[in-house]
Amino acid sequence: MTSNIRLNKWIHEMADLCRPDRIHWCDGSDSEYQSLLQMMVSKGVAIPLNPKKRPGCYLFRSHPSDVARVENRTFISSLRQDDAGPTNNWIDPQSLKSTMTDLFSGSMVGRTMYVIPFSMGPVGSPLSKIGVEITDSPYVVANMRIMTRIGKPVLDFLGSDGEFVPCLHSVGYPLLPGMVDPQWPCAPIEKKFISHFPEERLIWSYGSGYGGNALLGKKCFALRIASVQARDEGWLAEHMLILKITNPEGKSKYITGAFPSACGKTNLAMLVPTLPGWKVETVGDDIAWMKFGKDGRLYAINPEAGFFGVAPGTSAQSNPNAMKCVEKNTLFTNVALTDDGDVWWEGIGYDAPDHLIDWQGRDWYKGQSKEPAAHPNSRFTTPAHQCPSISPDWIAEEGVPISAILIGGRRPSTIPLVNESFSWEHGVFLGSIMGSEITAATISDQIGKVRRDPFAMLPFMGYHIGDYFRHWLNIGKMTTPEKLPKIYYVNWFRKNAEGKFIWPGYGENSRVLKWIFERLEGKAASQKTPIGNLPTPDSLDLDGLRVNPSELASILTVDLGGWKREAEDVRSYYRIFENKLPSALADQLDQLDQRLR
Ligand code: GTP
Ligand code: SPV
Ligand code: MN
Which of the four, 141, 193, 241, 591, has the lowest number of CB atoms within 10 Å? Predict the structure, then answer.
């Protein structure tokens, strides 16, 4: 119920189209959340975990075909194909709407249509934006309540004429009379459509209930639609963590980091430094909206309110803050269930018990079962305010001033541990050529293969990537150079001859953060190389670190042969941008070639 005329009209139109049995306006209250969960428990959709071990926690199991984002079913349906660019799937908006109108027609028969008003960013903050998601999935409602700010305060703020992004979602499984509702309703892959209409600022998602396909505030709005808004309004909507780092003298800086899906953002954002006296606090773990402040610096907000984090690999050793966070009030999806009502996943830090129920609900026996007990993209949804490392600034309405931007991915070879860009333009060049191994965060038959993923935004771009590079270059001209964050290319994922990670990662990444911090202070030394500024052998604090010296040397020096191949590969990759490739980036590539000779 709202006085917002446009919202009322849209809700009525969508209800006429989807024909739900009933409409529920979410008020966002705790009692609403609890009763939704109880309803899902009674239907066998949610499994309550042992309240002595995980109070307020529930386990969900998705359909085995619906376990991650579906990039090949994600569409940027701009009016002109050229505006979607060479990296996005495009369908003419009229034709896509007609296909999807048929799909949505009656798609909510037998179901409740939930209306979720949500705010990305603190309600009322000048950097925040409002969306309204319509969904027929109570699982989505429960997750959206953790991941965003939902309900009455948002409607109140929206008022009678406030702006919002309409986000329509259906799992695509109408319940006709006599049909039984499966545990995880969804549509077959060819009927899934995760669609964006950038000019209209509109999202239509059909057929999937999982993560970024269905929680429309996240990738669909806060990245794909927001990237278009950011281009038009002169700011940046990025796939980045935000952290605060404080040195032993008590001086703090804020750093963002763009790493592709399942490449370490949550872990870096919650890092516990191994270096004495240093402290890291969490502002955000997945998305940063950055705008210029009055002082000419870039300020970032975390538009989300929770973490939708990768479970496997999360342990008290690797990420104690996340482990604390998920002790209560957390929704788990596709992890394994222990006989005593707790969760387990690969890399949780202790052996599996002899028996588990795996993510597909099947018996799993230690030493016998061959498949992982938890899905590699199993996730926890947990409130940000529960995180022991959360920074009080995480809800700062004006955002936090950014001193450095990290970029990086999973590169088993070539890319060194850390590389400081020469300039903003050179940093944008490095961002544009970023590559990473494909991970289980997306459904793909090419997991593990390295692909170019510029600024970790490949799957999340709302427009032409060539225009996006130009936008980044323009941002660099909107203030004076010394006020811009410095850009650093990092890689925690180099492998040795045995295929093992050379760098221990996690808390030890604080050594790299310290070098960056001290570079920003003008203190740490660096050496100029053909690819950028690398640490001098003694400027990086390696005190007490146990890594094979020759392997360590290999990740701290330039692999000339590897970089020559890299530059050649970038040249052919750049061809896909045709006339949209900014000449500044073509020049950067030529200069790299020159320096590598
Ligand atoms: P999305 O939520 O998909 O965007 O992922 P993310 O970028 O937040 O990645 P996350 O921090 O959840 O890490 C993904 C996986 O990488 C987990 O299994 C981590 O344990 C592992 N990982 C994270 N940081 C490191 C690191 O420094 N070194 C190594 N070897 N693995 C890491
Ligand atoms: C990612 O894939 O980058 C995620 C998970 O953060 S999802 O929300 O499913 O996109
Ligand atoms: Mn992500």
Answer: 591
pLDDT above 80: residue 1: no
Q: Give the pocket of ligand 2 (CB within 6 Å).
A: 69, 211-212, 218-219, 261, 286, 308, 441
Specify the 3-state DSSP secondary structure of 596: helix
Residue 339 alpha carbon to ligand 3 centre in Å: 31
Tell which of 233, 257, 276 closes a domain. 233
> Does the pLDDT value for residue 537 go beyond 90?
no
Judge if 146 and 24 occupy the same domain: yes
Instruction: Examine the domain organization and report whether 301 and 321 are in the same domain.
Output: no
* 316, 297: one domain: no
Strands 288-292 and 236-238: antiparallel
Domain edge (last residue) among 386, 419, 443: 386
Asked whether residue 224 falls in the same domain as residue 189, the answer is yes
Task: Give per-residue pLDDT as tens, 317-362.
Answer: 999 999 999 999 999 999 999 999 999 999 999 999 999 999 999 9
CATH number for position 335? 2.170.8.10
Buried b (16+ CB within 10 A) or exposed e, 247-261: beeeeebbbbbbbbb
Q: What is the tens place of the pLDDT at every residue in 369-419?
A: 999 999 999 999 999 999 999 999 999 999 999 999 999 999 999 999 999
The span from the CA of 292 to the CA of 405, in Å, is 15
Residue 88 inside a domain? The answer is yes
CA-314 nearest atom, ligand 1? 20
Instruction: Name the residue at shortest CA distance from atom 6 of ligand 2.
Output: 261
The answer to whether the CB of 377 is under 6 A from ligand 1 is no
Residue 302 confidence (pLDDT): 98
Catalytic residue among 26, 57, 263, 387: 263
Q: How far is the CA of 134 from the centre of ligand 3 (A)?
A: 22
User: Are 174 and 111 a contacting pair, CB within 8 Å?
Assistant: yes
Q: Give the H/E segment covering residue 7.
A: helix 5-18
Kindly state if the Cβ of 262 falls inside 6 Å of ligand 1: yes
Residue 298 lies in a domain: yes
Residues with CB under 5 A from ligand 3 (ion): 261, 286
C-alpha 591/C-alpha 586 separation (Å) is: 9
- Do residues 196 and 249 share a domain? no
Statement to judge: residues 313 and 175 lie in one domain:
no
Are 296 and 342 found together in one domain? no
Structural domain for 382, as ranges: 308-386
Residues 285 and 396 in one domain: yes
Nearest atom of ligand 1 to the alpha carbon of 267: 11
The predicted-structure confidence for 229-279, as pLDDT tens digits, reads as follows 999 999 999 999 999 999 999 999 999 999 999 999 999 999 999 999 999
Give the pLDDT band (50/70/90) at residue 462.
Answer: very high
> What is the C-alpha separation between 125 and 397, in angstroms, rounded?
5
Is 387 a catalytic site residue? no
Q: How far is the CA of 18 from the centre of ligand 1 (A)?
A: 38
Distance CA 557, CA 211 (A): 39
Residue nearest to atom 28 of ligand 1 (CA): 505
Report how far ligand 1's centroid is from the alpha carbon of 308 (Å).
Answer: 12
Classify 111 as helix, strand or coil.
Answer: coil
This prediction's pTM:
0.98
Query: Would residue 57 count as lying in a domain?
Result: no
Residue nearest to atom 8 of ligand 2 (CA): 212
